[in-house]
């Protein structure tokens, strides 16, 4: 069971009205909204592919934009943590190295996901008509679904623990919620793309 009193005490350290904290929340929420809206628009209109001359070039452009936005998000996240107090009881070697280990695991999931999917597979290539031959089932997809998202969440969790930051923990929860919504939004649409592909193959 969740200790509500402990949670209230923990988040009593967080000033949710702080400008830096609000900016971090907005950047976290904006990123998946941006790439889903743009990717669906591309899937419907092929406008980016026409502008950049090919689906691959357009996908690489979107991927670059997502990487820049993720760097901005991480910067905002870090600045929000720095502007708010640490939890003194957690400001110790044990918490720091626990956070470091969690971040390392998260990094492993993110990097291995990228290597398994490739650039276009990672950055919504299927919305550009760049479809994979078959579903990836190797590590880390053999361990959990959407390892890129949950690996990224783990990195933020570890980063928050390393800084003994209640604000970081709350922002990590926002990251997890935003990714959960993104998965619910992306999953069925992506499955439909591949269902249509299989239907088209069968009809040939």
UniProtKB/TrEMBL annotation:
Name the InterPro entries on file.
PEMT/MFAP, Phopholipid_MeTrfase
What membrane topology is given?
A: Multi-pass membrane protein
Q: Which GO terms describe its cellular component?
A: endoplasmic reticulum membrane
Q: Which GO terms describe its molecular function?
A: phosphatidyl-N-methylethanolamine N-methyltransferase activity; phosphatidylethanolamine N-methyltransferase activity
> Where mainly found?
endoplasmic reticulum
Q: Does the keyword Transport apply?
A: no
Question: What PANTHER family does the database record attribute to this sequence?
Answer: PHOSPHATIDYLETHANOLAMINE N-METHYLTRANSFERASE
Protein name (record) = Phosphatidylethanolamine N-methyltransferase
